[in-house]
Amino acid sequence: MKKNLTFHMARHTFATTVTLSNGVPIESVSKMLGHQSIKITQHYAKVLDKKLSEDMEILRKRIELNGDR
C-alpha cells in the first residue's frame, strides 16, 4: 500500500466497512464516533450499494409477508 493511512481514513473505514455494512444503525455509529449530530456522521458514512440492496431485500420480504395476512 503506497498511501499513508490517516486518522480520517481510519474513521471513515470504521464507519462504513466495519459498522454500517454489518447492519449497525447510523445512530449508534454516530455515538461511537462521538458526534453530537447524525448529520456529521452522514459525511463519513455514505450508504454502500451492497447495504442498500440488502435493506431493500428485507423490505421486499416484509411486504410479501404482510400481504399474505
What does this structure look like?
The model has no long low-confidence stretch (mean pLDDT 85). α2 (26-33) crosses α3. The chain is 68% helix and 0% strand. The protein is built from 4 helices and no strands. The longest helix is centred in the C-terminal third of the chain and has 19 residues, at 49-67. It has helices at residues 7-19, 26-33, 38-44, 49-67. It has one domain. By secondary structure, the chain is mostly helical. The protein is elongated, with a radius of gyration of 15 Å.
Compile the SSE list and pairings.
Blueprint: H1 7-19, H2 26-33, H3 38-44, H4 49-67
Helix pairs in contact: 2-3
List key phrases describing it.
69 residues; mainly alpha; 4 helices; 68% helix; elongated
Would you tell me the overall average pLDDT? Answer: 85
Query: Uncertain segments of ≥5 residues (pLDDT<50)?
Result: none
Q: Secondary-structure element sequence?
A: HHHH
**Rg for CA atoms:** 15 Å
Reported for the largest beta sheet, the result is:
none
- The total of beta strands comes to 0
- What structural class results from the helix and strand content? mainly alpha
What portion of residues belong to β-strands? under 5%
Overall spatial form: elongated
Total domains, how many?
Answer: 1
First-to-last CA distance: 54 Å
Helix content: 55-70%
Number of helices: 4
